[in-house]
Amino acid sequence: MIPRYSRPEMVSIWEPQTRFKIWFEIEAHACDALAEIGVIPKESAKNIWEKAGNVTFNVDRIDEIERVTKHDVIAFLTHLGEFIGPDSRFVHQGMTSSDVLDTCLNVQLTRAADILLADIDGLLAAIERRAFEHKLTPCIGRSHGIHAEPVTFGLKMAEAHAEFSRAKKRLLAAREEVATCAISGAVGTFANIDPRVEEHVAAKMGLKPEPVSTQVIPRDRHAMFFATLGVIASSVERLAIEIRHLQRTEVLEAEEFFSEGQKGSSAMPHKRNPVLTENLTGLARLVRGMALPAMENVALWHERDISHSSVERMIGPDATVTLDFALARLTGVIDKLLVYPNNMQKNLDLLGGLVHSQRVLLALTQKGASREDAYRFVQRNAMPVWRGEGDFLALLKKDPDVSKLMTDAELEEKFDLGYHLKHVDTIFRRVFGRA
Amino acid sequence: MIPRYSRPEMVSIWEPQTRFKIWFEIEAHACDALAEIGVIPKESAKNIWEKAGNVTFNVDRIDEIERVTKHDVIAFLTHLGEFIGPDSRFVHQGMTSSDVLDTCLNVQLTRAADILLADIDGLLAAIERRAFEHKLTPCIGRSHGIHAEPVTFGLKMAEAHAEFSRAKKRLLAAREEVATCAISGAVGTFANIDPRVEEHVAAKMGLKPEPVSTQVIPRDRHAMFFATLGVIASSVERLAIEIRHLQRTEVLEAEEFFSEGQKGSSAMPHKRNPVLTENLTGLARLVRGMALPAMENVALWHERDISHSSVERMIGPDATVTLDFALARLTGVIDKLLVYPNNMQKNLDLLGGLVHSQRVLLALTQKGASREDAYRFVQRNAMPVWRGEGDFLALLKKDPDVSKLMTDAELEEKFDLGYHLKHVDTIFRRVFGRA
Amino acid sequence: MIPRYSRPEMVSIWEPQTRFKIWFEIEAHACDALAEIGVIPKESAKNIWEKAGNVTFNVDRIDEIERVTKHDVIAFLTHLGEFIGPDSRFVHQGMTSSDVLDTCLNVQLTRAADILLADIDGLLAAIERRAFEHKLTPCIGRSHGIHAEPVTFGLKMAEAHAEFSRAKKRLLAAREEVATCAISGAVGTFANIDPRVEEHVAAKMGLKPEPVSTQVIPRDRHAMFFATLGVIASSVERLAIEIRHLQRTEVLEAEEFFSEGQKGSSAMPHKRNPVLTENLTGLARLVRGMALPAMENVALWHERDISHSSVERMIGPDATVTLDFALARLTGVIDKLLVYPNNMQKNLDLLGGLVHSQRVLLALTQKGASREDAYRFVQRNAMPVWRGEGDFLALLKKDPDVSKLMTDAELEEKFDLGYHLKHVDTIFRRVFGRA
Amino acid sequence: MIPRYSRPEMVSIWEPQTRFKIWFEIEAHACDALAEIGVIPKESAKNIWEKAGNVTFNVDRIDEIERVTKHDVIAFLTHLGEFIGPDSRFVHQGMTSSDVLDTCLNVQLTRAADILLADIDGLLAAIERRAFEHKLTPCIGRSHGIHAEPVTFGLKMAEAHAEFSRAKKRLLAAREEVATCAISGAVGTFANIDPRVEEHVAAKMGLKPEPVSTQVIPRDRHAMFFATLGVIASSVERLAIEIRHLQRTEVLEAEEFFSEGQKGSSAMPHKRNPVLTENLTGLARLVRGMALPAMENVALWHERDISHSSVERMIGPDATVTLDFALARLTGVIDKLLVYPNNMQKNLDLLGGLVHSQRVLLALTQKGASREDAYRFVQRNAMPVWRGEGDFLALLKKDPDVSKLMTDAELEEKFDLGYHLKHVDTIFRRVFGRA
């Protein structure tokens, strides 16, 4: 997590003050439940909220205590006691540090997921707007980087929309994976704390009780969460690379917006580089790479070890902050993307009609040629055009094997661009529910 | 995929004959739909099924043709033509290779998912049986590898059951991710093939139409699939490592079943090694490592490139075959696991009562000691016991600060094992719906 | 490891027969050393070579024995005994399975490394030939996919040559990492086997004695080996992606060789796709992904566990076979690459002289303009050219701020292509030792 | 990079002030060379050092400029100009941003490598000290977590020493990989900057000239660097896991040092947990996970794209800072490790002599039994001992098949511990050059 690739709202989730606030809420809600079932005095539970419910914790002071105790939750509880006074002895009754730490982490991850979900919604809106704007803007479709057949720029956006709709669905599932709360005490047996406390805290913190915890909340949940972020980051990369390709000098069908003061290169002032999408490519590599350590975190020893902690201290903030930044940056790129329909048309015309070869091939078979013959007829006329030696339609008209099967008019009909766009509405309806 | 770690049912999904069979079905169903909408003669569609519906394809012959054409689908279609005769010109009309390849891959992945789901069901059944068998078999719970407080072996199984129930849910979602069919032609525009063909083939092959494909089915779906397998493999590793720990010479609370002819070591004949679970640890590393290449596959260029193909040819079989084998092996391990309650009790008694320290700590605070004082009283008596110098209960009884607050009888009550097991039923009901 | 991406020489290293042959050699050399130091009869050692030195082992028979013993080395030794007779009791004296398995693996990996080193030599030769062929073939250099300044195709090859020279150096180091032999007995103490046996076997098998083994050869060596393959695979990817870019329809500066019978697409017969380099991109992902499991293999428990074994059974063959295939394929691609100097020139001319902007910028500062002013003058003339509105040289001549500092002749001199190529020889001498 | 797992010296390498200082030095040295070859006035080059050689750069001011220019090097140069005045127009002549950025990164990485090398030296010293301290402290060697045969604690340390000696050698190679300098201008052709400038800057910054750069220094070098850190981190994990195992309650052969104020658990005050080595396990996962993004960085497009930058901004500091912290922490753990020879002896005795089974097996074969018979005799006496039903030596003496071959005295000799330690000195001499 570095400032350059961070946005404040997501960063704030991971700040010490936020963490201590969540710790306090977990402890105080637990006290309420303990009071309700008669383990501690109701007055004390009330007092805890009153004395510490609105304080700003002194992060430096807590760090100072931790340097002695070498235990972060004990340090916090000691500091909390400074606000609460004698009633502090009722705080954390029967609980273990993991109850606080793991429940807090899941609160943070669900909040992070909520921001990411909003990010995706914003991205989907931008994509949808550009999709309809360019629903029928024709451009060449490419397989293997080679011109294939016509598509539209709107279809490219539709694909992205469908992909990020899936991303959203996956993220909702990932959020649900980590939206659990454990207040089950040492080794998770509830020996020293009633399960009703967990139920109360879970409800108050917007979580569900973890069915069975072993002091810790099981880490397969978190592995799934971070793996999902990795897949979403890979979709960010896909759209980013599409734009990088479209912005290539020789292609130039679209460009990232270029602001006034911006300088493309310290040496070559004419350059307008797709630096935002290149940056997104790198950020995707980072987020993806964090899935593996998260998966290695699953196999903790026996009822728990703490090897997961250092990993999560780093990838918890890093993966969510980086993906948040990436989604927001991608939204801006799509929103302001400069699209050049004229250049799209120029590229469509580049191959002298070769992109219609398949239609001719099909027509020939329908006229009775075998698939192998039709393929041969088409290919022998396509190859010279590919080398820049002639026009595809003209050559076909002159080919006696072709002429035997198709008239010139029939051949001409096969070169109509509109033919390729007749199902764009079908696809739009599938993706957007409207066309 | 190597024979040693493979099971035949899963392997057969990935055999050439299976693949060609699926290819044929896709093509033949497409012909039915094309005939239904009048593009090709109904008689021809019928003839295709009749001539080739029950044949065994000649894999060597197809390979031979591919060596010339350097194109696998064309090679197959050529071979298919040898069965079908002139009607073969109606096969593959308006389709592109990816329609066949991608739909086939998704058929294979959904079939693989079905086997894996059955594997998980089998594993869950074995875990559940052992969980109830040992619901109240006490053993020490360990955090950081250090004795903490009592749990039961049934609780360990309950945790595993909850974890693999989540694995099942994730796998169902992953299966749904890849259960799509694309028959959309070159660059996915349906220019040369009616969308109704896709709908028909999808229904027949047990899939849903891909809302928008770009010649290929988008690879974020597959990335999610393989990432999910990686997470499940990590859960396999977790349970495997638990067993490896329990089988350590000094712990010996459980052992993998040891068959009669088996030799543990070429040098040390007394050895009984947890080789199955060690093997599972390695297999988990392999499956997990395949998630990354799958994520890198997402960002194909423009409407498609074929870089994903070599990755999928390897990880498609490898990840599913390896995970299938691992789940089955783990099921066998759990099913036949030798559990040693006597050793569990011996280990429980190892620390001279220290595992009850928290209960004493809590009791002291409830009697009016501050948390800090109680912690100090307990720790100063615990440390000598830890060093093997005395019995915890005896020392506590002699500590004047403790005696001031608790009678001997009150102290003794805190050393009751049953106290820790009182919520086992609660947890079992959460996990299994019964106790 | 799948046939499609395999070459026989590398595959043969990993075949059971090869493995058993190496096992035999290790055992027989050990017997020689044991005989030399008087532990077993010299006649027996000689007899072992004579009876089994030239046999073909029966792989099925060994598998059959293993199904009973569940131990591969014991199964092999039993089978070996069938050839040798009573003297077989002297085989494997004081040794442990790992002595055989680990030393064998390292023999296989060093042989694999030797093939890979030869592959790299072949690739370097192909690259060098093409580099000199096109040393002065000018083409546009691109940063961010955007035209920057002129380079030559030979320089692109020189970069690749330097990169694969580094790959070779790394591979030599990786080979040295795994070229060790351990014959140290159970837990590696040499309690039952004299260290002189290890020295003898190491020398005979072309390895060095492992300074300290713990029954197993430490796996950091293998992690380094596979990590190195991952880095080399990434260099394969880099060159593959360069070619994919150059083959794009709009760029078309180079093409993979296209054989006569080859079909680019089942639907679009004109297509010539960079399928080999796309394939290489995927293979790179696979090899790279194997570095992680190899690193996870390092932390074996205590003196050894066997979790590394399943990983190595898979990635040992897979990583070496795949990289061997990839290097060979890349060599073929480079060797036969169709290079189009005319298209390179066409692309160089595409931007109406903008690629010379930096030279103008520098000249302006040398004439006394501040860097900021010079940048501004250049950029305001570059932007219209970028939009296709005018010629860069013409606009500069008309700019009064520019005219104040530079004459038309001075401006024209800045548009000379040769200027950019004056240090090509310098670079070639650095890379190839000649120019 | 988070404060908790960071040490100031390594952190300072990555601070903005350090970076700007290095940028300045690169620029100023380049000016010296440019002056030397007559491109800019010598007086100006001198002036640049005088005006800015000792300044503290205003990081906030540079950030402020970058927010407008969106280009970090231009922002720095603008700020630099504020110190230098008119001569600033001679700075960065013919250079491109990457010349500064990439050379700076490599200076930072070599400095980081130097710290890591010193870390490893410190670790090796600690390991060596403990190795000789416990050269002959016997403990049980374990394979598969199961007691095998005796080793010594010193041998465990010797293995770690050999492993980190390899780590040092690898790190030296990795340092050499990234110790290069590129001052080659746009697209790396030296068109606007003489190669002698590069040579001068390289020499002054302690680097070698990059033989061929393409505006950027090729990223295979950095991939190798980070992959090497990943392998070293895996060795950290190995030693950490060894200690975690030894500290298990049932094993307790060693313990991390436990300071006075430290609290092991908020709930269980007696607990002494291996939290440092658990933490190291997690840190290893993190460093290892960064190897993949670094490898993905290799395949930049054409002469360069900037996707590597965001990755390096994160993993550059994160990997080096984390590994530095981990190595230092591990050194402290080893240095202060509490070693319990009495417990080691207790564990050695745990199996009633079974650990000597192999010696008996060998002796039986040497007395004439076939390997299969000997194995059977030993195993049938070992199994009851394993179940706790008897003493191994006593049972062997009573076995008639054994008695036929060995006298009681001969059997007793096989139970001598010293037998296993006779080659410890040999191994120590191999590892440490002394014994």
From TrEMBL, chains A, B, C, D:
It catalyses: N(6)-(1,2-dicarboxyethyl)-AMP = fumarate + AMP; (2S)-2-[5-amino-1-(5-phospho-beta-D-ribosyl)imidazole-4-carboxamido]succinate = 5-amino-1-(5-phospho-beta-D-ribosyl)imidazole-4-carboxamide + fumarate. Keywords: Lyase, Purine biosynthesis. InterPro entries: AdenyloSucc_lyase_C, Fumarase/histidase_N, Fumarate_lyase_CS, Fumarate_lyase_fam, Fumarate_lyase_N, L-Aspartase-like, Pur_lyase. GO terms for cellular component: cytosol. PROSITE patterns: FUMARATE_LYASES. This is Adenylosuccinate lyase. Belongs to the lyase 1 family. Adenylosuccinate lyase subfamily. It comes from Rhodoblastus acidophilus (Rhodopseudomonas acidophila). GO terms for molecular function: (S)-2-(5-amino-1-(5-phospho-D-ribosyl)imidazole-4-carboxamido) succinate lyase (fumarate-forming) activity; N6-(1,2-dicarboxyethyl)AMP AMP-lyase (fumarate-forming) activity. One of its GO terms (biological process) is 'de novo' AMP biosynthetic process. It holds the Pfam family Lyase_1. Signal peptide: none annotated. Its EC number is 4.3.2.2. Pathway: Purine metabolism; IMP biosynthesis via de novo pathway; 5-amino-1-(5-phospho-D-ribosyl)imidazole-4-carboxamide from 5-amino-1-(5-phospho-D-ribosyl)imidazole-4-carboxylate: step 2/2; Purine metabolism; AMP biosynthesis via de novo pathway; AMP from IMP: step 2/2. Residues 352-432 form the Adenylosuccinate lyase C-terminal domain. SMART domains: ADSL_C.
